[in-house]
Design brief:
By secondary structure, the chain is of the alpha/beta class. It is about 40% helix and about 20% strand. The protein has 2 domains: about 240 residues, Aspartate Aminotransferase, domain 2; about 90 residues, Aspartate Aminotransferase, domain 1. Helix 1 packs across helix 11, helix 2 packs parallel to helix 11 and helix 3 packs across helix 10.
């Protein structure tokens, strides 16, 4: 039985074209800066995001960590969302490894942080307080339903950051999903930020890696931090080759995932006992078990799995379903039928 794996877009396998490119990739020692394929990927990524330089890192987590450590010293503070991936799901790395203090602001449903909340969170110059250094945003916003954060909003945050001399980082793990949803080039969405991490191994299907982009000076700092974190890889061109194929071939099709997410949400709305979040903006669908469903969350997951459908659990009685390259229309129909059978 084919598995319909909707747990995440991180489960995507490389495409045949990626595997071929990996096998053929020219490589060198990237710790010496000598891997031509890594260098090409970094240049391509920086160019797409309109930044001076890029750094290939092992994961989105490492990209965000290296960025925040490059921007902030020990005891500095980063303002971020209470539902941000960096706050919730990166093992507290910024505090544990960087001594960076976090100030969490409640995310609004659309993934943004209220400008007045950010303003109020910026610390005065007083020895009692940490030094506010950085604002970190996320686009698309994972735990806010894959929400797309508009450019007009980030420009407002930028104006505040400029006024208060703060830096801005973007966790753009799924930045290209946001770009496609908004119909704007990724470089426009990246422009208000000093640094941006985006992931190759999510919707773009590459097996490993993310790229951190920013100014040449910032990337020079992040490069040393990547080494400190043990993230200096050697013949990493084997991995970067898949990333290049991802950037060359996987962008334009992201709209298909978004359309299927809407189709899946529409199908699930017809299933009695399921409450579906408002219209998905990108490739994620969030659903909740209604009060009439007695079945425990774990049993629902198990019974869906018996029918070949895997979903993510993101809270009590709440699931996340993520569309990606390996889910077609048949997969969407199978997921809807499986929910209908399990909750009948
Ligand atoms: N997110 C994963 C899980 O960790 C939740 C997923 O399945 O969605 N930023 C954002 C917005 C992310 O969604 C993720 C991964 C990361 C950063 C971290 O990327 P990796 O997994 O490459 O470290």
């Amino acid at each position: 039985m084919d598995i319909v794996d909707l747990r995440s877009d991180t489960v995507t396998h490389p495409t045949p074209e990626m595997r071929a490119a990996m096998a053929a990739a020219p490589v060198g020692d990237d710790v010496y800066g000598e891997d031509p394929t890594v260098n090409r990927l970094q240049e391509m990524a920086a160019d797409m995001l309109g930044k001076e330089a890029g750094l290939f890192v092992a994961s989105g987590t490492m990209g965000n960590l290296a960025a925040i450590l490059a921007h902030c010293g020990r005891g500095d503070e980063v303002i971020l969302g209470s539902k941000s991936h960096t706050f919730l799901f990166e093992a507290g790395g910024i505090s544990a490894l960087g001594g960076v203090h976090s100030c969490q602001i409640p995310n609004r449903a659309d993934g943004s942080l209220a400008i007045e909340d950010i303003r109020a969170a910026i610390r005065p110059d007083d020895a009692h307080y940490p030094v506010t250094r950085l604002i970190s945003l996320e686009n698309t916003h994972n735990r806010c339903g894959g929400a797309v954060v508009p450019l007009e909003y980030t420009l407002e945050v930028r104006a505040l950051a400029d006024e208060r001399r703060l830096l801005m980082h973007l966790d753009g793990a799924r930045l290209f999903n946001a770009a496609v949803a908004l119909g704007r080039p990724a470089r426009e969405l990246a422009a208000p930020f000093d640094s941006v991490t985006f992931c190759l191994s999510k919707a773009l299907c590459a097996p490993v890696g993310s790229v951190l982009c920013g100014s040449r000076e910032f990337i020079r700092k992040a490069h040393r931090i990547r080494k400190q974190l043990g993230g200096g890889m050697r013949q990493a061109g084997i991995l970067a080759a898949a990333g290049i194929v991802a950037l060359e071939t996987m962008m334009d099709r992201l709209a298909e995932d978004h359309a299927r997410a809407r189709k899946l949400a529409d199908g699930l709305k017809q299933v009695a006992g399921l409450i579906v979040d408002p219209e998905p903006a990108t490739n994620m669908v969030f659903v909740q078990l209604g009060p009439q469903i007695q079945l425990e969350t774990a049993r629902v997951v198990e019974r869906l799995k018996e029918r070949g459908v895997l979903v993510g659990v993101v809270g009590s009685r709440r699931f996340r379903l993520v569309l990606h390259y390996w889910i077609d229309d048949v997969g969407v129909e199978r997921a809807v039928s499986a929910f209908r059978e399990v909750l009948a």
